[in-house]
Automatic annotation (TrEMBL):
InterPro entries, per the entry: GLTP_sf, Glycolipid_transfer_prot_dom
The family this protein is said to belong to: Belongs to the GLTP family.
Domain of life: Eukaryota
GO CC terms of this entry: cytosol; membrane
Natural source organism: Phallusia mammillata
Pfam families listed in its UniProt record: GLTP (PF08718)
Protein name: Ceramide-1-phosphate transfer protein
Domain Glycolipid transfer protein per the UniProt entry, residue ranges: 37-190
Gene3D superfamilies linked to this entry: Glycolipid transfer protein
Organism taxonomic ancestry: Eukaryota, Metazoa, Chordata, Tunicata, Ascidiacea
GO biological process: negative regulation of interleukin-1 beta production
SUPFAM superfamilies listed in its UniProt record: Glycolipid transfer protein, GLTP
GO molecular function: ceramide 1-phosphate binding; ceramide 1-phosphate transfer activity
Length: 228
């Protein structure tokens, strides 16, 4: 059957591993409780997700440039003298809330230090966008048009709500730079059949969704969903 034939990607080096990305998010999602999601593991999963963004070309620059910065900030928190308080997502939120380290009025600047909770919230919103997109790619939704998948996933996620109008319009243009689905599948480049790639993407999307829901519950618990 055509769906189980190997994808020919010998002419293009893999930019990321869909298998690694899926495995990392599955490890995060296997936590019985949200507080058990280790920050280091979560950031490892995000670094693989960044490779996914890069594999999609310049269309997702509006996401990738920001999340690279956010992952770096959270890595720095883990390396700091207070790193033990950032070992898990819940420990971070509890520590920052208890010690009044979250600025609810002002966005980070030279005078206002970014909190870990605010920083992760940006990744959290982007995660929703990407898990929807990866799920659509896996199921070949929106008539197979990746540009439409990207547009619909963006507007179904919290990201669009917090972006100014000019950014929303720019995203609407950017998604039309996305490769077609056939090209995207070839970019997976991993000795997997098309069926295996689609199945792995679907599992990955479900695991990402579980992690999102874990984090969403924590942000709600600590009343941190609307940090500026």
């Amino acid at each position: 059957m055509a769906s189980s034939t190997k994808v020919d990607c010998s002419d293009k080096k893999a930019m990321f591993s869909i298998t690694n990305m899926s495995n990392l998010f599955q490890k995060c999602a296997k936590s019985d409780k949200a507080q058990q999601v280790e920050m280091d593991l979560y950031l490892d999963a995000w670094e693989e997700l960044i490779r996914f963004l890069n594999s999609m070309g310049k269309a997702f620059t509006f996401v990738s440039s920001d999340v690279v910065d956010k992952v770096g900030i959270l890595r720095d928190f883990r390396k700091s003298n207070e790193g033990r308080n950032y070992a898990t997502i819940e420990e971070m939120m509890s520590y920052e809330k208890k010690n009044d380290l979250i600025n609810y009025k002002d966005a980070p600047s030279k005078k206002v230090k970014a909190s870990g909770s605010r920083t992760l919230l940006r990744l959290h919103r982007a995660l929703k966008f990407l898990l929807i997109l990866i799920g659509k790619l896996a199921r070949n939704e929106d008539d197979g048009k990746v540009s439409v998948m990207g547009y619909n996933a963006y507007h179904a996620s919290p990201m669009s709500k917090y972006h100014p109008w000019i950014v929303q319009k720019a995203v609407g243009v950017a998604v039309y730079m996305l490769p077609d689905r056939e090209t995207f599948i070839k970019q997976m480049c991993q000795d997997l059949s098309r069926e295996e790639i689609e199945s792995t993407m679907d599992v990955c999307s479900q695991s990402m969704d579980a992690v999102f829901e874990y984090s969403e519950a924590l942000y709600s618990k600590f009343d941190l969903l609307e940090i500026p």
